[in-house]
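Q: My labmate handed me this sequence with no annotations at all. I'd like to see what the chain might look like in three dimensions before we decide whether it's worth expressing. Could you predict it?
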Amino acid sequence: MNQVKSSHLTTWQTTFGSLPASDPLSCKQSLWDRPGILASLAVIESSISDPIQMATFLAASAPYSGDWLLALPVSSCGMKLNDDAVRVAVSLRLGCSICVSHTCRCGATVDVQGQQGLICKQPSPSRVVRHNVMNNIIFRSLSSAGITASKESTSQTRLDGKRSDGLTLVPWQGDKPVTWNIIVVSTFAQSYLHASGQSAAGTAELAVSRNGAKYSCLPRVFFLYQSRSKL
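A: Here is what I predict for the chain of 231 residues:
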């Protein structure tokens, strides 16, 4: 047994180098697995040439991107997904086939990966519902912390009549109330694909920059907080 252990240790050290004897995590399997996982990720990344595949790979390998898989399926908290929702979410994460290729109502072609559904410009009631759910989460969180707030307050209207998603009614930072706006973007949209192919956070950062410019005309008495999410 000791000979087998010594042989495996020698092979591991030959491949990945020596492990510091003082490392407090040397008894953890994850520590021994990590060099091999990183090496495999590097090989996969170097072989990707398609921008959509690269965006999918970077998003899936980003820290915390898979934390939603660890959430307890509690129906009362809205965290339980049905079978179809899980199938679609996992398929999008891995770049697998979701549906049969067909024509979208906007006229564009929907491929087997179903990514057109994330970037279609046609009005969709489900998008409004998802946006309102996210906005309600922020609003209820503030209320639970004892912070009074208002959704889509008329006191922060832009020149075109549009409003951000909410506003606290008490000072937040620099004696300014905070106003927030939710942004949900797709890493596969053509306008963001070049950014998402460079880094996992590239799409979100670009969206925040564009949204900040859109709301730059708000009065200077507000502190703008942007909640960003990417699909």
